[in-house]
Amino acid sequence: MDFNLDETQQDLRTLAADLLAKEAAPERLEAHERSGLPFDPKLWQALRQAGLMSVCLPEESGGAGLGPVEMAVVLREVGAHAAPVPALGTLVSTLATPRQADIGAVAIREPGRGSADPPATTAERAGGGWTLTGRKSGVAYAREAEVLVTADQGVFAVTAPQEVAEFTSTGEPAATLVFEATPAERVAGPEGVDRLRQLYTAGVAAQASGVLAGALKLTTEYIRTRRQFDRALAEFQAVTMQIADVYIAGRALDVAMWSGAWRLAAGLPAEEDLAVAAFHVGEAVKALYTCQHLHGGLGLDVSYPLHRYFAHAKHLNHLLGGADAQLDLIGALV
């Protein structure tokens, strides 16, 4: 397998990076945090106009017809800039089904169940359609989005479901969804359940990879310029070893994430690779603690950009159920 990006993927990465550097600059992110809005509408519009949210949509539906690797390329850049937009759910949704809503969300996790457990949410035929009964937790942007829901009979699209608000470390809206014979449209059969879950895991891992890369860049610049005892922090051996640990954590996550995305794109079994990637999302949180430590007191200042990366890493790890859940899954797989 070759994890080097081809020309199209490199161009896509450059487009996403350049747009986000302009539209998700620190002052814009600060303004958004003061606004109280669920996401930055100008940034979201810019991403959509650039075609970055439709790269995985089939060409006959107006997209570029690209796949999981390209999804990962875009989401990694979103994470690297800690961008407050519903890109994860939207890109996963367009890759899982040949349709695109203005905003997409994915409902997979269920209270008290592991990330790879079959869904307990049930679907029943009702007249000419379907209804859903069950609960899903940790669904971001559910109120603003068309939600793809996994159930025992496949994947279903639901709009405006009943919800109970949840708190997130990033401040983005999320909810537990409650289905009580809720009308739904089936968009994929039972075979689509595992694929949606795997695409979602790959997307979360890709965004977490970008988050850690952004934090590493910020921390490396800080220890290179911050001086103590007439020496740059980077000249101290203990500091060098700690920043090296952060780099290694990032590389481990990258390798597993790209492997999983590549295997999904190639139609190969990807469960083990994605489980390892999901575990390393949890390790990324530990690496963010190291970044905070290397910043000293500044690392805890919520007016300093590092706090956004830490909040995003915590949130993404929560979406996958945490490192212990992934270790259980890896053990079951091997």
Look up the CATH topology of the largest domain: Butyryl-CoA Dehydrogenase, subunit A, domain 3
> Uncertain runs with pLDDT below 50, 5 residues or more?
none
Q: Determine the N-to-C terminus distance.
A: 21 Å
Per CATH, the superfamily of the largest domain is Butyryl-CoA Dehydrogenase, subunit A, domain 3
- Percent helix among the residues? 40-55%
The count of helical stretches stands at: 10
Order of helices and strands: HHHHHEEEEEEEHEEHHHH
The best one-word shape is: globular
Mean pLDDT: 92
Largest sheet: 7 strands, mixed
Gyration radius, rounded: 20 Å
Number of domains: 3
Note the beta-strand portion: 15-25%
Number of strands: 9
> What is the highest CATH level, the class of the largest domain?
Mainly Alpha
How do you describe this structure in short?
The protein has 334 residues and is of the alpha+beta class.
Describe the structure.
- By secondary structure, the chain is α+β, with helices and mostly antiparallel strands.
- It folds into three domains: 90 residues, Acyl-CoA dehydrogenase/oxidase, N-terminal domain (Butyryl-Coa Dehydrogenase, subunit A, domain 1, Orthogonal Bundle); 87 residues, Butyryl-CoA Dehydrogenase, subunit A, domain 2 (Beta Barrel), CATH 2.40.110; 141 residues, Butyryl-CoA Dehydrogenase, subunit A, domain 3, CATH 1.20.140.10.
- Helix content is 52%, strand content 17%.
- The protein is built from ten helices and nine strands.
- The strands form two sheets. Strands 1, 2, 3, 4, 5, 6 and 7 form a seven-stranded mixed sheet that branches. Strands 8-9 form a two-stranded antiparallel ribbon.
- The two termini are 21 Å apart.
- The relative contact order is 0.12.
- The mean pLDDT is 92.
